[in-house]
Amino acid sequence: LSASVFIAGDWGSSRLRLYLCGGDRVLDRRAGPGAFDTAGAHKAALLSLIEPWLARYGAGPVLLCGMVGSRNGWVEAPYAPSPAGAEDLRQRLVRVEGGPVEVMIMPGVAGPGPRGTPEVMRGEETQIIGALALAPALARGRWRLGLPGTHTKWALVEDGRIVSFQTALTGELFGLLRDHGALAKVDGERAARDGDGFVAGLERRPARLGAGLLHELFEVRSRQLLDGWDCAYALDFLSGLLIGADVEGALALFGGSAREIILIGEPALTGRYGQALAHFGASSRSLGGEECALAGLRSIALGMKDASRVAD
Amino acid sequence: LSASVFIAGDWGSSRLRLYLCGGDRVLDRRAGPGAFDTAGAHKAALLSLIEPWLARYGAGPVLLCGMVGSRNGWVEAPYAPSPAGAEDLRQRLVRVEGGPVEVMIMPGVAGPGPRGTPEVMRGEETQIIGALALAPALARGRWRLGLPGTHTKWALVEDGRIVSFQTALTGELFGLLRDHGALAKVDGERAARDGDGFVAGLERRPARLGAGLLHELFEVRSRQLLDGWDCAYALDFLSGLLIGADVEGALALFGGSAREIILIGEPALTGRYGQALAHFGASSRSLGGEECALAGLRSIALGMKDASRVAD
């Protein structure tokens, strides 16, 4: 049994998702603190969560992806250079020393983006490998993928390898402006507004306007002051403005392509990105971010076993 | 004496600057808390600061500008519609009721920006009036002014009136990304870097790249991770990226003009904007923001006295 049972973990900066995997099935799952909330205590945090699994199933290997492998995580797993596919990543897995259970950490990916600036990802590479496993058609030919989030990634995948990618600060900017900025602070003039603030934001198309975004953002506030927008509508407008700018820019990143764009992420977010892509004339399909991470870890883990069997 | 002695106050959200003015001279000055730090206690805060002046010079009028006149300030002074010059603003001064000293608050200005979106300013109108007083040549013809800050304003002034203006969120975004974001958090790989990060940021010219800014900001972080940029250099680069995008967009705002751009603000900031303007081929001249605010308040106050003399 233990040969086919292993533990997969998506350990991001603020959240750990652990899966006890048996073949194609998830036998159990647990959640834990983020890799940046566990400074110096990653092993203890992990062991306390998986102890029941170890006791019942034996010390199966643990495969982790995400910020746990960053410089400020548990053990640094250096970036694989792009282009990188599943086998490239598997060869750069980093083993955590010191037992009692075998722990391997996924590398991130680094390489020049479509504009030549350096780019890094960590965690998204596993989701992309998972998407290729869940939708095998993606493993052949040229595909554009979008992974919306705090740092949205737009990736070009060719024949199963991540060739190039670009980060957009969309989610971080939205969060900063919502939580700390002066933009959405004038609530209550009107209880609610008709219409869809997100679509109104999309329609601004700041990407068409040169410096655009810097000069468009203040409308969120001036409309509250002058037109009585409530905060919910204003934040939807801000979301449309930012996602619209991101998507419109992304469509130009890797050159034209008739194919749909594959979105990977939380459904609420991929839904908004899909709506924005449709607004700009591009079709898309969405895959769940959690499902892709798990599928990517499973795909890498199963390959490890295959490899070790061959080595045996 | 008291007829020519008055009190001018620049009362922004986070800072109060008070001046005891006698004709063209500043007889004394004091500093106090911001208009948003004084909720419900504006009168007490003001009186405690000016009491010695009232005792010595009598209850001269007090003229205030800035966020003290906003909805969340002391008494709301509604926006004057653009175009607005000194006389338009003077006619919309709002008198604070309840004594013991006469207090008048400057209105802000509102109107459609160059792209048709609604715009508001509060405080900058007084600095602009002051700039026209300090440099009378600006009071005739068509001039472009830049007032860099948390919310940078770009204004078109024609024959002494503010015709149109545009807000850029440059300073707020820089502060949010520096203080709360993930961009500049990887210090220490290299102690320092050769070269000027600000100029490197200017040279990115995100405005030329469509969505640009959203897709350019992450370079601040990836270069720290991959190239060992220290935080100081990374923040200078971020500053150049943001100010460059702001300035490049601003140069297109009001149509071409051979004339220099007038910058009003803190010297460290107008210096950076002047450098960015020069980088994009535009000349500029800088005036101190504090001096302009004081000159604007004086100009409005002296006009009040002239008007009342005429009325007598």
Question: What would you say this structure looks like, in words?
Answer:
2 copies of one chain form a homodimer. With 312 residues, chain A is α/β, with parallel strands linked by helices. Chain A has 10 helices and 14 strands. In chain A, the strands form 3 sheets. The first copy, chain A, has a 6-stranded mixed β-sheet, sandwiched between helices. The first copy, chain A, has a 5-stranded mixed β-sheet with strand order 12-11-10-13-14, with helices on both faces. Chain A has a 3-stranded mixed β-sheet with strand order 5-8-9, with no helix packed on it. Chain A is globular. The two termini of chain A are 18 Å apart. The relative contact order of chain A is 0.14. Chains A and B meet through strand 9, strand 12, helix 4, helix 6 and helix 7 of A and strand 9, strand 12, helix 4, helix 6 and helix 7 of B.
Largest interface: A-B, 52 and 53 residues
| Count of helix runs of chain A | 10
Class per helix and strand makeup of chain A: alpha/beta
Specify the helix fraction band of chain A. Answer: 25-40%
The radius of gyration of chain A is 21 Å
What's the mean pLDDT score of chain A? 89
What is the strand tally of chain A? 14
Low-pLDDT residue intervals, each spanning 5 or more residues of chain A: 307-312
What string, H for helix and E for strand, traces the elements of chain A in order?
EEEHEEHEEEEHEEEHHHHHEHEH
Global geometry of chain A: globular
Strand neighbour order, sheet with most strands of chain A: 3-2-1-4-7-6
Q: Tell me which oligomeric state these chains represent.
A: homodimer
Strand content of chain A: 15-25%
Major β-sheet profile of chain A: 6 strands, mixed
N-end to C-end Cα span of chain A? 18 Å
